[in-house]
Design goal:
This protein is an alpha/beta fold. The chain has helices at residues 37-48, 63-68, 88-94, 96-101, 112-120, 134-143, 180-189, and strands spanning 2-3, 12-20, 25-27, 56-62, 79-84, 106-109, 125-130, 150-158, 166-167, 175-177, 201-203, 206-217. It is globular and about 45 Å long. The strands form two sheets. Strands 1, 2, 4, 5, 6, 7, 8, 10, 11 and 12 form a ten-stranded mixed beta sheet that branches. The protein has one domain: 3-Layer(aba) Sandwich (Dihydrofolate Reductase, subunit A). The longest helix is centred in the first third of the chain and has 12 residues, at 37-48. Residues 12-215 form the DHFR domain. It comes from Pichia kluyveri. It is an enzyme of class 1 (oxidoreductase). Its EC number is 1.5.1.3.
Length: 218
């Protein structure tokens, strides 16, 4: 059995998520059950930094995820933000001023697969990141897993059980964890290899490892 080796395909489509082992819980009542500063820094740097200075990354998220970001931080800077909604016209009314003020960095769409395909036609995009929430993650994993090249999964452990109501559905029959060296090469390509330890991280009694997963190829 082999794994895909095309780490630097451009633009590649990646899913990035932090989840609590063993059930891969990712949220409760629309919020993260933790505030791990190093993990948030990792998310910010991975999704905004590129290997090629002339290119940018894009982040795709659901409406609830976008609206959960404090207004002063949205759209996420240094990235093209695409927000998914079944009712784009209603969302336009909700965030109309933000769209006007950020016409180059903020877009709306009602189709996940279509927006991924449209971004893949751009030679100015290096990497497309799916950043949540659970419904968006799991729809893509279930219905369009062929569109995903890689999953950046932060594996978190905690001494106590945390209340969760949303989970990341990772099918381990289809995905396999890469060795640490492969993720380190990705970090190095973005100039981040000196900023993060891939394994053995501890903060506020949370232990966490940064991992990279790719589709299995039989």
């Amino acid at each position: 059995m082999m794994t895909s080796t095309n780490v630097f395909k451009s633009p590649k489509v990646s899913l990035i998520v932090a989840a609590l082992l063993p059930e891969l819980g990712i949220g409760n009542k629309g919020k993260l059950p933790w505030a791990i500063k190093q993990e948030m820094k990792y998310f910010r740097k991975i999704t905004s930094k590129t290997a090629h200075e002339e290119k940018r990354n894009a982040v795709i998220m659901g409406r609830k995820t976008y609206l959960s970001i404090p207004k002063r931080f949205r759209p996420l800077k240094d990235r093209i933000n695409i927000v998914l909604s079944r009712d784009v016209e209603k969302l336009k009314l909700e965030i109309g001023a933000e769209l006007i003020d950020n016409e180059d960095n903020l877009r709306l769409s009602d189709s996940l697969s279509s927006v991924i395909e449209s971004l893949q036609d751009s030679d100015k995009i290096e990497e497309i990141f799916i950043i949540g929430g659970a419904e968006v993650y799991n729809q893509l994993i279930k219905d369009h897993h062929d569109l995903i090249d890689a999953i950046y999964l932060t594996e978190i452990t905690y001494k106590d059980k945390l209340e969760m109501d949303s989970y990341f559905n990772l099918d381990k029959d289809l995905w396999i964890k890469c060795d640490n060296e492969k993720l380190k090469k990705v970090l190095e390509s973005k100039g981040l290899h000196e900023e993060f330890e891939v394994t053995g991280n501890i903060e506020d009694e949370f232990k966490f490892d940064f991992t990279l997963w790719e589709k299995k190829i039989v």
